[in-house]
Every structure is written in structure tokens, then in C-alpha cells.
């Protein structure tokens, strides 16, 4: 496969006309037909109470709700008055339904180690872990931060928190000391669960050392639980630190799941926004559980004998909803893989598919593009015949990558679903039900049940077919975020205040005559790098904190592999020489490697208006190597642009 330019990708997205019908065999056995979708979708909008009551009724409630929805914009309650427990529904309920001996998780370590848990085994572990948390003083409503590799203990810890009503906040293991410290403080976590180390491409990531450094200025923190993933060689602080395996062995495996209010907080997950500080997106119990279960069943056409592999780490929302909660809520067998897709080589994913007979694979376009670049040889070396459905998530998928995924990985037998959603939406919002509708490469597709999207102007006027505008959602849905933790005003402004009375997604999109929505990308100062969200302001504020940097502006530029790359324009502090290596190390230290600039441009000045506003539009054009377009007359000094264009990308 030769590499292709992004401009041709954009061109393809704009002019893509291919329509791929669901493979006949798949369609014949699908859970839902086109007629089912149309009927249920109508019902979900016209009579939401009946629709959601039926869906929620498939799960166990310790106390039934009295009202399906209570909407006091911008605050919502779902299944009002109901009491339930998501961990109970994920585990105890499956055992009660006779799935005790069915495999819940198949975990594969980067080093090839495999651990499996049946539903009964996982339940026992989670009960033990729940008692362990209680013995460390964790109570319902307390926040617990997880900073772990993708190991079974991560899922066990999440489920144990949910079981006792503690609120988990998972921080991706690739995040830095200060990112972890900020999140611990924002959530005022009492407990941090980490590991001695994690594996990444054969090397050890020093999680415990990072955790120690991060914990130095977190007054709320009482204990640290440490999982031994590598060699158990970690400095333990007496009184504060406890080994997971010691505490777990001491804990009883008798525990009854807490009966929690439907709106009891379930988790906080931090994500980047257009202003400096990451937002703690808060999700609650009942609505999230119902939507995770429903989308798992419908979007993925789940069957009892499926082996479902979502490749996302639990540090991201995809890992919450489709690596852990979704599959377990439906009693599926889920695969978890700890490591990198190219360790020891680019055939690893395909070996995992063959070895564990994965039938549904859910991964990100950035991974698909990387695989595609390595050619067909790696996938062709493995038997991929167990696969029956493929999913994509995290960023727009270019039609070339879509077709490659369909042809080479799916053997033209497996539908491809492109799923659009966000940390804030909790679960899948747009996709095409795989057996019911054709796929259009590059287009996410139709709304899920209960989701009422529209494409509008900045003023909120609805646009017609094929007109580009802002993607909004016109009514609340069960798994939507409830607030920004500790900052309800930010919640109100960001999501319900940009365009009055609708949810503002922050994405640009358009809808075709068939109703398929194509999401083209963010419209705010948020970048999507390899499917991960990064706020440009967040990176800028870290840059200007470096002694050698005076001013900084960060923009994205199209990147064939990562979707978007980070370009930082920096001006030096007088008396300093800017060292790109030092700048990159600084970003890695302060945020994490995923925010490291792909290119740095050192400049004597940035393009500003007379009132001092940086014109990022021009910086984006320069970063992409394009001609300057647009009115430069408002710039205080237009010659800055020429100097920036002539500058080296370092
Ligand atoms: C942003 C949300 C959904 C879990 C992973 C990312 C972009 C996500 C798609 C898609 C086009 C997509 C959007 C969105 N995005 N999926 N299928 N097609 N764009 O969650 O980190 O909260 O990022 O990812 O821009 O707003 P997230």
C-alpha cells in the first residue's frame, strides 16, 4: 500500500459515493432489520417512556423507577427513583442467568501471558476487591483514581468501585505525573490504585514512581493500592501503600452489591476542552448502564457466542463502555490486550484474533491506517475467518482505510460500522446497524435509538441535505454527561449554552439525503491526535510555563497516520535559545507523550491582530504547508507570516 496524501483523503470524503450493502449472510442473521430500526427509532422519539422502560426493564433494578425522564435543562435525571447497581448487572446477574462458567474476559499480556476469568471467577474477584476497598476506608460517593496498565485488575477495580458506589476516575497510564496530580486533586481522590509498572513495547513504564511523585501534593489522598504487574519492585510507603495481592488475599469474597440511586455518580473521566484545564466529565449509574447495554446489543449485533474485542485502553471512554461495561452487561466474552499493536511486530492484532477466535473487532482509524501502511502480508498470515463484524471509533475514517478494513481484514464478509460518539455522550450516538443498512465509507450514519441529531448554523437554524454545519443533539439521552465535575457552570456553557437549548457536540458535520451524517472534525480548539483529544490551550499553557518560551500557539495539521499532528509555534524569552528537544521533553513530562509536538516553529513573533489576538487560522495554513489565504490586513505586522513560512519545522 502506498501512502496517500491527506488532501486526497479529504477529496475522497467529499466525493465518496460508494455504498456497501450488508453482506447477505450477515443480514439474514442480524438481530435487527431495517424495519425494526425504523419502528423502534420512531418509538424512541415519539414515545420515549415506553421505549426506554422496555430497554431498562431487561436489566435488574433493586427498586423500580417511578419516572423515566426528568429534564430541567441543562440537568437531567433518568429512571427517577430507581435503584440499581451496574456491577451487579454486569456480574451477579450473568451468573444468575447461567453464565457462571462462561468466559467474561480473555486477557492477553504484551509478553504473551494469557489470563481468563469466567463470570463466576470475575464476580468472586470483584466481591473481594469491594471488601478490600471498604477495608481501606472507601465509602459510597468517595472518588478513587486508577492509574493502571490494561490488565484485568483495572476492570476489577472499576467494577469494585461501582459495586460499593465509589466513583472511579481512570487516568490513562500514558499520562504524566502532573496530569495525574491535577486529576487526583480535581476529584479529591481518597485512594489511588496503580501498579509497580506497565509494559509498553517491551519496556517498563514506571507507574508507581509516577504515582509517588504525583501524590506529593494531593492532600485528600489516604492510600495507594499497588498491583504487582512486573517484578513487585516498588518502594512502598508504610501506612499509605498496600499491595493489591496482600489486601485482596485478606478480603472476604462475600459481598452484596450496594443498591444505588439511578443518578448515583458512577465515574469521572477527564477530557480536553477548548480552554486550559481538562474537564471531569461525570456519568451516573442508571442511564449509562441502560445505554451501554442497549448499544452493545444493537450496534454490535451481539450474539451469545461472540468474542468481542474492543482494543481501547480503559483510560478512554471507549474502554469504559465497550472494553468493560458493555460486553459484561450483555454477558459477552470480551478480549483485553495489554500492549502495543506492533509488538513484537505489526501482526500482533491478527494473531490475537486467530488465537482467541475474535468475532467482533472494534478499533480506531489511526490503527487501521498504520496496519494498512504495513501492507496485506501481516493480516494474510493469520486466520481471520472468525471475524464477522468490524467497528471503527475515535475520529473520521477515510474511505481508503474503511475499504481496506472491509476488504483485507473482513474479507468482504464483515460489515464495517463507523461509530460516532464522545466522552460526554457515554455511548454510541451515530452508526448504521450492521445487518440493516449499507455502509457508506467515511460516513458514521444514522442516529441510535433516542438520539435526535441535527446540523445547524451557529445561530441554530437547521440546514438542509449536504449542507455543512454544527452537529447538535436536540434532546437528552440516558448516557449523557450530567455535569463537569466541580464546575457546573462550565457544563452549562460548553454544552447547552453555545447554541440555546440543544447539546453542542463541538463537531462539524453534514447529513445526506438518506439521513447519513458525516462528521468531519472538531470546530473548536480541540485536536484529535490518533483518536485522542488534546486541547490546544492546554498545550500552550504548558509551553509558556517553560523558562525559554515567551509565547506559544498550537495548531493541528493533517497527518496521514494520526489524523492530526501537533504543531507548536513558539517565541523565545529574551536571553534564551529555544531547544526543540527540551520543549518536547517538557511537554512529555507535563502532559504525556501523546501531546508531544510533531513540529516546532521558532519565531520572533506570532501573527496578531492590533488588539493582540493570535490569528490561528494563518498558523494552520502555515503548518499544513499551504498558501496564506484570507484577509491579512487586520494583522499588526503582516510580514510575520512570511518569516514564519520561511522558518524551519523543527
Ligand atoms: C471526538 C470525541 C468516542 C470515543 C472515542 C473518542 C471524534 C469520535 C468519531 C467518528 C468522526 C469521531 C469527534 C468527537 N470522533 N468518533 N466515528 N467519526 N469523528 O472520544 O476523546 O471524547 O473524542 O472524537 O471529533 O467529538 P473523545
Automatic annotation (TrEMBL):
The keyword Ligase applies. The keyword Nucleotide-binding applies. Its cofactor is Mg(2+). Its EC number is 6.2.1.1. PROSITE patterns: AMP_BINDING. Belongs to the ATP-dependent AMP-binding enzyme family. Catalyzes the conversion of acetate into acetyl-CoA (AcCoA), an essential intermediate at the junction of anabolic and catabolic pathways. AcsA undergoes a two-step reaction. In the first half reaction, AcsA combines acetate with ATP to form acetyl-adenylate (AcAMP) intermediate. In the second half reaction, it can then transfer the acetyl group from AcAMP to the sulfhydryl group of CoA, forming the product AcCoA. This is Acetyl-coenzyme A synthetase. It comes from Deinococcus rubellus.
Amino acid at each position: 500500500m502506498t501512502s496517500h496524501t491527506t488532501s486526497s483523503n479529504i477529496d475522497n470524503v467529499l466525493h465518496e459515493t460508494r455504498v456497501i450493502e450488508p453482506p447477505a449472510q450477515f443480514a439474514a442473521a442480524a438481530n435487527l432489520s431495517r424495519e425494526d430500526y425504523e419502528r423502534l427509532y420512531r418509538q424512541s422519539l415519539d414515545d420515549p417512556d415506553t421505549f426506554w422502560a422496555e430497554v431498562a426493564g431487561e436489566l435488574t433494578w433493586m427498586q423500580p423507577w417511578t419516572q423515566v425522564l426528568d429534564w430541567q435543562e441543562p440537568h437531567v435525571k433518568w429512571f427517577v427513583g430507581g435503584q440499581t447497581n451496574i456491577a451487579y448487572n454486569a456480574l451477579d446477574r450473568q451468573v444468575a442467568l447461567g453464565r457462571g462458567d462462561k468466559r467474561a474476559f480473555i486477557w492477553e499480556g504484551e509478553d504473551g501471558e494469557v489470563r481468563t476469568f469466567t463470570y463466576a471467577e470475575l464476580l468472586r474477584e470483584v466481591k473481594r476487591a469491594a471488601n478490600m476497598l471498604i477495608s481501606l476506608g472507601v465509602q459510597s460517593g468517595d472518588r478513587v483514581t486508577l492509574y493502571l496498565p490494561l490488565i484485568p485488575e483495572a476492570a476489577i477495580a472499576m467494577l469494585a468501585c461501582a459495586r460499593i458506589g465509589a466513583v472511579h476516575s481512570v487516568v490513562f497510564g500514558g499520562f504524566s505525573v502532573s496530569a495525574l496530580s491535577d486529576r487526583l486533586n480535581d476529584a479529591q481522590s481518597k485512594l489511588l490504585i496503580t501498579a509497580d509498572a506497565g509494559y509498553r513495547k517491551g519496556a517498563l513504564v514506571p507507574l508507581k514512581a509516577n504515582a509517588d511523585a504525583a501524590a506529593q501534593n494531593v492532600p485528600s489522598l489516604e492510600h495507594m493500592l499497588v498491583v504487582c504487574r512486573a517484578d513487585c519492585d516498588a518502594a512502598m510507603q508504610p501506612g499509605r501503600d498496600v499491595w493489591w495481592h496482600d489486601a485482596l488475599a485478606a478480603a472476604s469474597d462475600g459481598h452484596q452489591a450496594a443498591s444505588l440511586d439511578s443518578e448515583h455518580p458512577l465515574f469521572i473521566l477527564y477530557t480536553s476542552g477548548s480552554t486550559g484545564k481538562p474537564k471531569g466529565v461525570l456519568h451516573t449509574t442508571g442511564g449509562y448502564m441502560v445505554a451501554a447495554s442497549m448499544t452493545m446489543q444493537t450496534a454490535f449485533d451481539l450474539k451469545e457466542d461472540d468474542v468481542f474485542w474492543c482494543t481501547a485502553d480503559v483510560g478512554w471512554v471507549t474502554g469504559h463502555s465497550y472494553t468493560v461495561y458493555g460486553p459484561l452487561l450483555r454477558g459477552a466474552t470480551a478480549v483485553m490486550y495489554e500492549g502495543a499493536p506492533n509488538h513484537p511486530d505489526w501482526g500482533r492484532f491478527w494473531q490475537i484474533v486467530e488465537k482467541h477466535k475474535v468475532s467482533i473487532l472494534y478499533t480506531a482509524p489511526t490503527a487501521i491506517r498504520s496496519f494498512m501502511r504495513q501492507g496485506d502480508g501481516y493480516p494474510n498470515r493469520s486466520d481471520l475467518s472468525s471475524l464477522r463484524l468490524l467497528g471503527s471509533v475515535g475520529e473520521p475514517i477515510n474511505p481508503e482505510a474503511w475499504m481496506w478494513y472491509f476488504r483485507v481484514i473482513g474479507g468482504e464478509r464483515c460489515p464495517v460500522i463507523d461509530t460516532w460518539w464522545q466522552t460526554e455522550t457515554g455511548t454510541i450516538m451515530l452508526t448504521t446497524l450492521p445487518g440493516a443498512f449499507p455502509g457508506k465509507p467515511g460516513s458514521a450514519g444514522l442516529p441510535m435509538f433516542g438520539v435526535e441529531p441535527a446540523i445547524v448554523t451557529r445561530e441554530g437554524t437547521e440546514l438542509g441535505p449536504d449542507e455543512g454545519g454544527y452537529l447538535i443533539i436536540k434532546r437528552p439521552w440516558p448516557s449523557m454527561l450530567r455535569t463537569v465535575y466541580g464546575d457546573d457552570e462550565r457544563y452549562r456553557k460548553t454544552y447547552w449554552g453555545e447554541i440555546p437549548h440543544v447539546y453542542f457536540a463541538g463537531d462539524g458535520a453534514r447529513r445526506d439525503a438518506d439521513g447519513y451524517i458525516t462528521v468531519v472534525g472538531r470546530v473548536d480548539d480541540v485536536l484529535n491526535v490518533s483518536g485522542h483529544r488534546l486541547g490546544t490551550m492546554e498545550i500552550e499553557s504548558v509551553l509558556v510555563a517553560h523558562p525559554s518560551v515567551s509565547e506559544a500557539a498550537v495548531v493541528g495539521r493533517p497527518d496521514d497516520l494520526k489524523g492530526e499532528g501537533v504543531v507548536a509555534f513558539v517565541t523565545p524569552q529574551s536571553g534564551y535559545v529555544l531547544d526543540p528537544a527540551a520543549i518536547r521533553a517538557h511537554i512529555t513530562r507535563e502532559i504525556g507523550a501523546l501531546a508531544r509536538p510533531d513540529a516546532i516553529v521558532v519565531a520572533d513573533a506570532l501573527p496578531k491582530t492590533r488588539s493582540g489576538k493570535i490569528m490561528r487560522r494563518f498558523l494552520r495554513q502555515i503548518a499544513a504547508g499551504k498558501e496564506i489565504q484570507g484577509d491579512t490586513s487586520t494583522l499588526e505586522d503582516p510580514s510575520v507570516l512570511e518569516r514564519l513560512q520561511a522558518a524551519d519545522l523543527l
